[in-house]
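user: Please supply your own:

assistant:
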Amino acid sequence: MDLSVIALHLEQLDALSSTGFRFQCFPISGDVEVLKVAVEGREELPLFISTSDDQILCISYLWDESQVAPQRRLAMLEAMLDMNIPMPLSAFARLDDWYVVFGALSLNSSLNDIEHELAVLSDNCLEVIEDMAEFLL
């Protein structure tokens, strides 16, 4: 799946979106091609899409290590593990010093499936930030 095809689809959805979201897409060049996707009304939590030989990966950066209350870090990690399974289509990870939520799809996923994953991931980000606020500075 080509990222430009995903970007074109998302930006053309407008009122036809099955999720009710509007998306703006910004390609990021580099060693790995990445598509930054801003969800209208949630621009502070953009989603980043990349592809590999066998999957589409969607990631959102939540907070970095410096924003975690040191005395609450272990409790936060345990809460994240407990929350991981009931959070549909998403999982936690850490990239460098950043905590992220991600979802992966097959390269054969439809554009509607990708739109749905992005909507769920965006919703999950808001839920995670609300639920984890007690662990952050």
The longest strand covers residues 55-64. The first helix runs from residue 3 to 13. The chain has one domain: 3-135. The two ends are 39 Å apart (CA to CA).
